[in-house]
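WARN retry 2 of 3 for item q-0093 after timeout on previous attempt; input resubmitted unchanged.
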Amino acid sequence: MTEEAKTCEALLAVLGRLKLALSTAADMHGLTLTQMHTMYNIWHGAETMGQLAGSVHCDASTATGMVDRLIAQNLVTRESCESDRRTKLLALTSKGQKIMDDIMADLPALFGCKQLSDHEQQMLRSLLERIAVV
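OK item q-0093 returned
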């Protein structure tokens, strides 16, 4: 097996662990993985419905449905932009922000980062950043 193939197998194994960890984090807060991913993208800077749809790689109607369900749970707000009424602005509610803060605090343990030294985490982050832009 080539080094590249071994690396791909290791990345697939990590992907499985990350998916399980993310599902666990979502479940702990009564969310689906899709809802948590939507909230993460809003938390991370998707301020409009269009930006959110682009971030989660879906069409506008799918993004609208996801946001509608989060609004019903009082996790997200959607308001018209004052300068362009066609644009809908998104934000986490205080309840949604608290959930995201809790999830982000839980992820290092769930992802296994706490097993790594600071130096190992810096090395891993550097490598992940390099392959993330490919």
